Amino acid sequence: RRVHGEKAHCAATMSTPNHEKFLSDMARHLTSFLEEGGRVEDVENILRHHDIDHTDEEFMKQFEGRRILRNPPVPVLYEHALRHERGTNIVDGGALVALSGSKTGRSPKDKRIVDEPSSSEDVWWGPVNIKLPEKSFIINRSRAVDYLNTRDVLFIVDGFAGWDPKYRIKIRVVCERAYHALFMTNMLIRPTPEELKNFGQPDYVIYNAGAFPCNRHTDGVSSSTSVAINFARKEMVILGTEYAGEMKKGVLTIIMYLMMKMGALPLHSSCNEGPDGTTTLFFGLSGTGKTTLSADPARKLIGDDEHVWTSEGVFNVEGGCYAKCVNLSAEKEPEIYNAIRFGAVVENVVYDAARKVDYNDISITENTRCAYPLEFIPNAKLPAVGSHPTNVILLTCDAFGVLPPVSKLTKAQAMYHFISGYTAKVAGTEVGITEPTAAFSACYGSPFLVMHPVRYAKKLAEMLETYSAPAWLINTGWTGGAYGVGSRIKLKYTRAMIDAIHDGSLAKAEFQEMPVFGLLFPKKCAGVPDEILDPRTGWSDTAKFDEAVNKLAQRFFKNFEQYQGQLTDDVLAGGPKKTA
Predict the structure, then answer these.
(1) Does the annotation count 268 as an active-site position?
(2) What is the pLDDT of residues 92-141, one digit of tens each?
(3) Catalytic-role residue among 143, 249, 381, 425
(4) Does 241 qualify as catalytic in the annotation?
(5) Model's pTM, two decimal places?
(6) Which of 237, 395, 413, 420 lies in disulfide reach of 288, CB 3.0 to 4.6 Å?
């Protein structure tokens, strides 16, 4: 009776998309909780915390007495960072350098999704989305708010996720580090003064108390780090890590959930637009060249990492770019290099006494990064929206040296390779890796998927079919042999292949089929040596090449076992063929 009484109270104060279903599920969920020995006090606590108010007045009550800087200008953030944050400096181009502490990358094993009735049935539970009890989230949230209340100064950043107003999400970030505030000022879409004035209640709030650890003894927590999202409360809490990328990818995770619920397709991809208004989507894991290849001086950049494909076209989720800086140079990547100036944030880099950054020095981490506003790219398109894609390019860095540099995909192959999300790690990139290692990430973004990969793949198939977008597989990895024997495909050759895709000439080329994988590769491409296009001819020992092809095919088979029985035969036929 008390559960259903609280349910009636919630009905008067809550507003959710599936209101009645949510309340019924909640009552059933809590009744079961009591039947299994849960305390009434805990039930009341859970219900009370579902009645969340993010209105400005209620939100600010949490931080009464604190000095709060709301949406401060960039120079003010520089001042606070330089005065109060160890390791912060200004480098020769004017960018702010910051250190992220002991964590220089994401902590995927510490990511949690709250198990609550409104979203539980949609979530792909497992190693990517680990369950966190609601009570534990409240404990972490309280811990974060209490810690933030001990700080002398707090920063609040309000911004948007999504350039299309129909799908736009309002995000609020509260944090203690100016570095984090500047990072999210760059990465979110910056509201105009009028939009800030009328910003109202945020859709989601990020509490970043990353300098303070969580209690590892809290139920559902496995270390002193916790990055947790609660879809019912519309909140994200960060404890135990100061790596700024957690906020960015937290927003992507939220988008991956909400957009699918809205009937749109969220994508971990980059996107650019040609002079004729046609757009291209690029999918690829870290190190495949996704950011580099989408920053093409001959085309307008819509975005470098996160997009949504709707019935009206595509739009960028972000207001900035987050580029890898390792081995960065003005010659190889001028757009990114020149974007590192006043207002940008560079993370975990080494610089000399003259404040000149050495992008080849990875003594702090190989994962050096820079966050800068989208408008720092001279040819960025603003607003960052585009038409339906006319080409979809899947990128891989095949360190085994067997996949063609460019292949034209059938719809079945496009589905298969999208679900596989293949690339390879090479020796030296991670501790313990001494030879090329295959890496698969479903939909090219497994760590950020909330729903099962098949749901995203089916939506992609629907969009490809509806809008007749051809798909291509580009290998930016090795040719003439595996890593250590062959050589990396030159960037100028990869760019020439993509140019041929964009001008339509490659689609008209004569194609040859690769054994086992069945990929169709062109015999000729302007600006690319013929011997590069056929991977087999580049190997001095073709028998070893054939052996390497079969070994890679086996790795694909092994990875795809998890999807057997969930896809149609035509999609399964898009993969490599088994040999005797």
Answers:
(1) yes
(2) 999 999 999 999 999 999 999 999 999 999 999 999 999 999 999 999 99
(3) 249
(4) no
(5) 0.87
(6) 395
